[in-house]
Specification:
Helix 1 crosses helix 5. The chain has three domains: 90 residues, formyl-coa transferase, domain 3 (2-Layer Sandwich), CATH 3.30.1540; 36 residues, no CATH class; 31 residues, no CATH class. By secondary structure, it is an alpha+beta fold. Helix content is 36%, strand content 14%. The mean pLDDT is 90. The chain is built from eight helices and five strands. A hairpin with a 3-residue loop joins strand 4 and strand 5.
Length: 195
């Protein structure tokens, strides 16, 4: 497969088995089986193990091999899809987690913010702030936190022109009179746009 471009595969993972499947409650899950252990966990969880020898024989593949799982991905997906489609997301999650399957739920941005603790205020990286002119927003802060430099709470984004005078004075060294002249001439403006 050297010197070959990656063909369009939809949501299939290139080179191993990985595909998304719809659940009975109109959600989607992505499952991935790169290692043999991941593959065995997925096969046990979805109860497809009894069918695998016949498919391996028919296709001339060995599903213990990562590349062969990729080669047989459509046949494997045809076995896994009905199992997933009969279950809700929470039922799939319970079984997959219980078997150690490598998987994740697809989420819209709304679902991410409303359902996933990793994007909630339970995660110290996120805070809800009041952004002037917009309202309450969930804002991420820095992902890194150190004892010597604790994570700071995110702040609202500055308004356009909010720091004009400060920058002109501190960074460019302009006097109050020079800054005032720039405002009077309409060259710069403060946050309201009419200063």
């Amino acid at each position: 497969m050297l010197h070959e471009g990656r063909p369009p595969l939809g949501n299939d993972m290139y080179g191993a088995f990985g595909r998304d499947f719809p659940t009975s409650d109109d959600r989607r899950v992505m499952v991935v089986a790169i290692s043999l252990r991941q593959w065995q966990a997925l096969a046990r969880a979805t109860e497809i193990e009894p069918h695998l020898p016949a498919i391996e024989t028919a296709l001339g593949l060995d599903f213990c091999l990562e590349g062969d799982r990729f080669g047989g991905r459509d046949a494997l997906a045809a076995l896994i899809a009905p199992w997933v489609a009969k279950r809700t997301l929470s039922e799939v999650a319970e079984v997959f987690d219980g078997h150690g399957v490598c998987w994740g739920a697809y989420q819209t941005f709304t679902q991410l913010v409303e359902e996933d603790w990793r994007c909630s205020e339970a995660n110290p990286m996120f805070s809800d702030i009041d952004q002037p002119g917009i309202g309450m927003l969930r804002i991420p802060g820095t992902p890194a936190a150190f004892r010597a430099s604790p994570r700071r709470t995110p702040l609202p984004a500055p308004l356009l022109g909010e720091h004009t005078d400060e920058i002109l004075a501190e960074e460019l060294g302009l006097s109050s009179a020079e800054i005032g002249a720039l405002h009077d001439a309409g060259i710069v403006a403060g946050p309201t746009g009419n200063e």
